[in-house]
Amino acid sequence: MQCRKCKKTIPDGSLFCNFCGKKQTVTTARHRKRAHGTGTIRKDTRYKNPYIAIAPASPHGANRTYIGSYPDVKTAQAALEDFIKHGRPELYGSTLADIYKLWSAVHFKQIKDSTVWIAMWKRLSPIHSVKMADIRAAHFQPFVDAATSKSSASKIKSLALMLCRYAMENDLINKNYAEFLKLPKFEKTEKIIFSSDQINTLWKHSDDKRVQVILSMIYMGFRLGEMTALTRDRVFLDKGYIVGGIKTEAGTDRIIPFPSGIPEIAGFFRQWLNADSSERLFPMDEKQFRHAYFYQPLSELGMIDGHLRPGTGNSWIFSEKHHLTPHSTRHTFASLSAAAGMRPENLQKIIGHADYSTTADIYIHKNADELIAEMSKLRR
Description:
CATH superfamily of the largest domain: Intergrase catalytic core
Low-confidence stretches: 353-366
Largest sheet: 3 strands, antiparallel
Order of helices and strands: EEEHHHHHHHHEEEHHEEHHH
Strand order of the largest sheet: 1-2-3
Strand content: 5-15%
CATH architecture of the largest domain: Orthogonal Bundle
Radius of gyration: 32 Å
Shape: elongated
Mean pLDDT: 83
Number of strands: 8
């Protein structure tokens, strides 16, 4: 071996050089110990990210807060310094579930329907207990990839974005990792609508209240949730329209006229109002409504090939991938309206896709006549 200083040849394993006396062993530099009361960084090789950052002890002697685990000392030190600087000890041990609880308590007060976000949150159940400080894009990506539709994948990503944004606002993470999520590509499929023969079959059985509901959705463009949310004080039979709608600013409190060319539709609503004094026309949740007023009657009429999932009571399994769904009624309404020559801007207002919202009863009644005239173009 060569001397580290004079480069002369010395016996292998020498501790010192025989010629110049230079020490030959290499001592690994140790990280400087942190000052007392400034927190701890320790290494645990059992973990993928071995450097553990722990907050300083509180003056009251409470348990020290685990901040997170990191791949290197530098990152762990940055996290510890950030903790000391911003000081959010009550949140630093929070799990994803803790953050969701805090976020939803605020967000759900600002929206009318939280159903979709609750459903997306349930899909994330395997990572509910993961520490928010440890959450990365890789935690969310499998759930985005497992989504069966573009809409579901987008909603999961949106929920992840909002949760990460809330965590950033509270100094738990330094970046919104959900921004790095990749949406899978979905094959664009043609929307399934009711055929003329199927609509004729429905009219032949229109003495059945369940079929009446489906026909009303086909000829008025209701979403399923909008039907279950309908209340009697929003139905104006004398004026020829309903004020309803949910989900978006454009869709909320919009005018939905009865098609005057199909008087049976208004007649269905009159029957329902007279037969029951309940405030809501259909006092049940969406899942019950979907089963009782859509899939069950269509199954009996042979329009869908499906059966109830054993032990569920109202969850359906279908033999084909693409089949009629409650949303098919909206696509059918749009197709019928366009074929009847309805002006696109008025169709958008009726169906709730335009940048249009109602702010006062006067404004509603002022615009009703034009929309009612457009709906009169529909025929059976």
